[in-house]
Specification:
The complex is a heterodimer of chains A (108) and B (122). Chain A is mainly beta and 108 residues long. Chain A has strands at residues 5-6, 9-12, 18-23, 33-37, 44-47, 61-66, 69-74, 83-90, 97-99, 103-107. Chain B is mainly beta and 122 residues long. Chain B has no helices and eleven strands. Chain B starts with a strand and ends with a strand. Classes of the chains: A mainly beta (108), B mainly beta (122).
């Protein structure tokens, strides 16, 4: 299946921990990647593979998996983390990618 | 450093065509797939497909066949997205993106262009 489901909106108090989830059948076989997108900016890769961060991504961002659900965990959320977050994955052929619908994170 | 630099905003009338460019630098262009991603106003990211920059073979996601064409000119390290018979619903920001962790296959997208706004309006 090429569907990934995300909650449309999540909120977190400043300094607290928040989990953003991404659910889909493909995630039982393939890792998700997570992207952060701020208004009027291009997306930025946050997490890839099991739990890998590109250079420059703060370690308060981490990833985990359980069954068909991938999670992005932000430990100690900052005001600057307010953004849209998208997961993506691939199909079994490796030729097709697809995105989840995105989660808007509000930091209170 | 790796950079993807896209062409500027475009305004077109319905039925016209547009060609968006994405110039790559800082890596071996033909070793990595070039992906295209659409984002309509206020909407999420849609993966449109990818171009095998080594063979020139495009792969289109469902919903992006027929009017959308991916191509490249390896001599200038540039990928192109052409959209024909434009409709108002094609109004969106179009991103090119590549993943240097996946050799000649689509993968995690660690480098993105700045996006090109295409507006279709009469």
């Amino acid at each position: 299946s090429s569907e990934l489901t995300q909650d449309p909106a999540v909120s977190v108090a400043l300094g607290q921990t928040v989990t953003i989830t991404c659910q889909g059948d493909s995630l039982t076989d393939y890792y998700a990647a997570w992207y952060q997108q701020k208004p009027r900016q291009a997306p930025v890769l946050l997490i890839y593979g099991k739990d890998n961060r590109p250079s420059g991504i703060p370690d308060r961002f981490s990833g985990s998996y359980s069954g068909n659900t991938a999670s992005l965990i932000i430990t100690g959320a900052q005001a600057d983390d307010e953004a849209d977050y998208y997961c993506n994955s691939r199909d079994s052929s490796g030729n097709y990618l697809f995105f989840g619908g995105g989660t808007k994170l509000t930091v209170l | 450093q790796v950079q993807l630099v896209q062409s500027g905003s475009e305004l077109r009338k319905p039925g016209a065509s547009v060609k968006v460019s994405c110039k790559a630098s800082g890596y071996t262009f033909t070793n990595y797939a070039m992906n295209w991603v659409r984002q309509a106003p206020g909407q999420g990211l849609e993966w449109m497909g990818w171009l095998n920059t080594y063979t020139g073979k495009p792969t289109y996601a469902q919903g992006f066949t027929g009017r959308f064409v991916f191509s490249s000119d390896t001599s200038v390290r540039t990928a192109y997205l052409q959209i024909s018979s434009l409709k108002s619903e094609d109004t969106a920001v179009y991103y090119c993106a590549t993943g240097l962790g996946s050799y000649r296959r689509p993968g995690d997208l660690d480098y993105w262009g700045q996006g090109t706004l295409v507006t279709v309006s009469s």
